[in-house]
Design goal:
The protein has 454 residues and is mostly helical. It contains 17 helices and 2 strands. Pfam families: MFS_1.
């Protein structure tokens, strides 16, 4: 008697989103939330370092950029590791690394010690984010994949926003080290939950030839009343898939143009995000605004990003993804110019920074675009390399802010210039949409519905 063959993605599509899948979403949400809190922390710590250690803003550039270099290297290495060894192992290990390193950063005694520890923190942060996105997307039904993955990734925006609000309360009372203690303790607690509860990606297991019994045990947690006895499991990519380097695959199978444009878009977007969130508190303080007010205004950026990201996830399940992204980045360029025109109006800046964050929700949604574009065998690599290459845009934004201020450029000039990378991001993601709308041939390996070809 022939065994039943069950397509894992079709199984996910045909069953309701279960409590088990919600648990995965919540755990991944918590990982990216503490990731966001730790990533944003240096922007709120920087003014205190200038005062306590008597250093110049330009001298802070290595500290501000150290975690970003770590983020880039962590992302570039973690994707191929996750495609080889599994998403869960990399997520758990990365959360442990960035939690421990952030906690140790609170004991820093000099700029170089803080720089080294922030670099190690970045290694863990960079490895965690792409693999939570990949894991979540591989447990989501196709019809709601963008919204559910976006909902999970909102943890990053909320974590970054929470960093600002937490910083405004605890740094004045307990000093800058207290923010790093909070940022280190939370992920270490979370590691225990991840190790016990978080499952491996079922699609990854099928691609790697895991036993049918192991796959069936996971799918039974999604639908307890489905009989999976004697079944074998498949995903579309397995059929005809060739063994090749996951990195090389990013430029094969007609992926090359899309890969380059994804990298360009994400790079430009992070120039905007890191220059704004990293240096806005310092710029506002120089304009005579208190650090507490500056922290709250900056926190509005990531708070707005949360709402923008949710709307974009909803729209991406219903509209052309590239139109949604292109319009959002263009709106962000307009908002950044408006911020530059009102440097001293705290009430208005709250609204404008919130609006800029709302529009830059496109940056968060880029990981959804990448996860939809690549196949299971190299999806983690595709997402992580976009994030890793993009991090160099974050490094440019974080380091350039301090240099421009030291050179004497004012609030208005810096923000007018910041509109340029936002506009370039809009152009790049729109070009990707145009190119793949007229793609000369279908992807030869895998399933068309798994690709973001429209």
């Amino acid at each position: 008697m022939n065994k039943r063959v069950i397509d894992v993605q079709k199984f996910l599509d045909d069953h309701r989103f279960s409590g088990f899948q919600w648990a995965i979403l919540i755990l991944c949400f918590l990982v990216v939330a503490v990731d966001g809190l730790d990533t944003a922390a240096m922007g709120f710590i920087a003014p205190s370092l200038v005062t306590e250690w008597g250093v110049t803003k330009a001298a802070l550039a290595p500290v501000m950029s150290a975690a970003l270099f770590g983020l880039a290297i962590g992302a570039l290495t973690a994707g191929p590791l996750a495609d080889k060894y599994g998403r869960k192992k990399v997520v758990v290990a990365s959360a442990f690394i960035f939690g421990l390193a952030c906690l140790l950063s609170a004991a820093s005694w000099s700029l170089w010690s803080l720089t080294v520890l922030r670099f190690v923190t970045g290694l863990g942060l960079g490895a965690a984010m792409p693999n939570t996105v990949t894991l979540m997307s591989e447990y989501a039904p196709r019809a709601r994949r963008a919204l559910l993955t976006t909902l999970m990734f909102c943890g990053f925006s909320l974590g970054s926003a929470a960093s600002g609000f937490v910083a405004s309360h605890i740094i004045p009372a307990f000093g800058w080290r207290s923010l790093l203690i909070v940022g280190g303790a939370l992920p270490l607690i979370l590691v225990v939950l991840l190790a016990v509860v978080l499952p491996e990606s079922v699609r990854f297991l099928v691609c790697k030839g895991a036993s049918a019994e192991r796959v069936a045990r996971i799918l039974k947690r999604i639908s307890t009343d489905t009989d999976l006895s004697g079944a074998t499991f498949t995903v579309p990519e397995v059929v005809g898939a060739a063994s090749e380097s996951s990195i090389k695959a990013l430029f094969r199978h007609n992926n090359g143009v899309g890969t380059a444009l994804l990298w360009t878009t994400y790079f430009m977007g992070l120039v905007v995000v890191y220059m704004l969130t990293g240096w806005l508190p310092t710029l506002m303080k120089e304009a005579g605004i208190s650090l507490a007010q500056a922290a709250v205004v900056t926190g509005m950026f990531m708070f707005g990003s949360t709402f923008g990201t949710l709307l974009m996830g909803w729209l991406m399940d219903r509209m052309n993804n590239h139109v949604v992204m292109g319009v959002s980045y263009a709106a962000a360029a307009v908002c950044v110019v408006a911020i530059g025109m009102h440097p001293g109006d705290v009430a208005l800046l709250r609204v404008l920074v919130f609006a800029a964050g709302f529009a830059m929700g496109a940056q968060v949604s880029m990981v959804i675009l990448a996860a939809q574009f690549y196949q299971t065998q190299y999806r983690a690599t595709g997402v992580s390399w976009m994030l890793g290459i993009g991090r160099f845009g974050g490094i440019l934004g974080a380091s350039t802010g301090g240099i421009l201020m030291t050179m004497g450029y004012d609030f208005r000039t810096i923000f007018f210039g910041l509109a340029v990378p936002a506009a370039l991001a809009a152009a790049a993601v729109s070009l990707k949409g145009v190119y793949y709308a007229h793609r000369p041939s279908a992807i030869p390996v895998g399933s068309a519905p798994e690709l973001d070809a429209h």
